[in-house]
Amino acid sequence: MKSLKYYAFVILLFALFIFIMNGGDLFKKPLGSGDDFMLYMNRLEDNISVNEWQTASVNYEKLYRAWKKIVPRIQYSVEKNEINAIDVNLARLKSCISSQDKTLALLELNEAREHWQDLNR
Amino acid sequence: MFSTIKLVIGAYFHIKLLIIHLELAIGVFALNEALVVLVRSIIAFFTLLIFARMLGKQQISQLTFFDYVLGITIGSIAASLSVDITTRAWPHWVGLATWTGAVFILQETSIRSKLGDRCLTGEPSILIMNGQIMEKTMMKLRYTTSDLLEQLRDKGVFDLNKIGFAVLETNGQLSVLLKPEYQPVTPTDLNITSSNAGLSNQLIYNGLVIEANLARAGVDRIWLEQQLQAQGINSPSEVYLAGYDANSGSLYIDKYQDNLS
C-alpha cells in the first residue's frame, strides 16, 4: 500500500512536470477577456491591407495588451528567444503603423505570426 | 427548472471569476527570468532525485569509469534543464529521462545476464600473479608501474616481495593477496576462541534515553543508571552518546564534558 502511494505520487509529480513543460499550446489559447492574440493579429492584418491606419493603431494596442497577458502564462514552457523575437516584432510593427509603411508592417506581422506558431515547438 | 438555470449561471460566473483571479495571480509575476529558473530548478531537482533513487545505491567508490561519465552527463543535462532558458525545458527533460532509462537498462542487463555484465563492466585483471608482474596485461589496460606502486602503497604494501596476487577490479580498485608467510595472524591460527561481535545499540543519544533500544539490547533503565553511576555520571542528560553491544557486554559512553588532559 505504501509503495503504491509512492508510485502514485511519483506519477502525479511527473504528470504535473510534463504539463508545466508542455502547457504552452494550451496557455496560448485565450482564457479570459482581451487575450485572443490571433484574433487581433488577423484584424490588424485586415486593417493594414486596406490602409486603415487609425483602426490598425487601436488593434495594435489590443494585440500588445493580449501578448503581455499571455507571456506570464507561457514563460515556463517556451523558449525565451521566441518571446523576445515577438517582443521585437511588435515594437517594429508599432513604428511601421506610425509611419504607415504597409510592406514592412505586413512583413513584421507575418514574422510575428511565424514566431507565435513556433512557441512550444 | 428555474433553479437549474440559476445554478448554471452561478457556476459560469464562478468560473469566470476564478479565471480573472488566476490571470491576476499569474500577471503579478509577468515575464520573470528568475521565476522561470526557480520553477525549472524545482522540476530538475525532483526529477533528478527520483531518477537517482531509481538507479539504486551504488557508491561513488564502486563506480566504473563509464558510470562516472554517465553521472556527469546526467548532471550536466539537469543543470541545463534548470538554468538554460534559451531552450525549452521539455527536450532537456526528455534527454534526462533517456539517459536515466539507458543506465537503468544497462543495470538490468548486468544483473540478469553474466555475459551482459562482462561486456558492459569488463572483468577484473590480474596484474601480479605468484609475485610476478604481468607487463602485457598492464600495457593492454594502459596501467603504469607508478599506478601499481601507488595503489599498493595505498593498501599498505611497500615491499613487492610480499605480494602473492594483485587484481585490478572493474572500478579501478586494486585487491591485494599477500603471500601466506606475510598474512596477519588470525585467532584461528593461534587456536583462540573469539566471541561474536554484534551490532552496538545506541542507548543514549543527545542526552535522551532510547527506550526501544534498551529493550532490544535486553537491558533496562535501572541497569543503565547503575552503569552511568559507576562511571560517575548522575544523569543521562550528561551523556552525548552511549552504545551497548549485548554480545560482548561492552558499553561505550561519551559525555558532553570532554576531559582531554
Radius of gyration of chain A: 19 Å
Uncertain stretches of 5 or more adjacent residues of chain B: none
Strand proportion of chain B: 5-15%
CATH architecture designation of chain A:
Up-down Bundle
Number of helices of chain B: 9
The biggest sheet of chain B, with number of strands, parallel, antiparallel or mixed sense and barrel status, is: 4 strands, antiparallel
- Uncertain segments of chain A of ≥5 residues (pLDDT<50)? none
Quick one: CATH class of chain A?
Mainly Alpha
Form type of chain B: flat
Helix share of residues of chain A? over 70%
Mean pLDDT of chain A comes to 91
Straight-line distance between termini of chain A: 39 Å
- Quantity of strands of chain A, as a count: 0
Question: How many discrete structural domains of chain A?
Answer: 1
Produce the secondary structure layout.
The complex is a heterodimer of chains A (121) and B (261).
Chain A lengths: L1 H21 L1 H5 L8 H13 L3 H22 L5 H19 L3 H17 L3
Helix pairs in contact in A: 3-4, 3-6, 4-5, 5-6
Chain B lengths: L1 H28 L3 H22 L10 H19 L5 H24 L1 H8 L3 E5 L2 E2 L1 H6 L4 H10 L8 E6 L5 E5 L22 E5 L2 E2 L1 H7 L3 H10 L8 E7 L4 E6 L6
Antiparallel strand pairs in B: 1-2, 1-3, 3-4, 5-6, 5-7, 7-8
Spell out the key features of this protein.
heterodimer, A: 121 residues, mainly alpha, Four Helix Bundle (Hemerythrin (Met), subunit A), B: alpha+beta, CRO Repressor, 3 domains, four-stranded antiparallel beta sheet, 8 strands
Gist?
Chain A has 121 residues and is mostly helical. Chain A is built from 6 helices and no strands. The longest helix of chain A is centred in the middle third of the chain and has 22 residues, at 53-74.
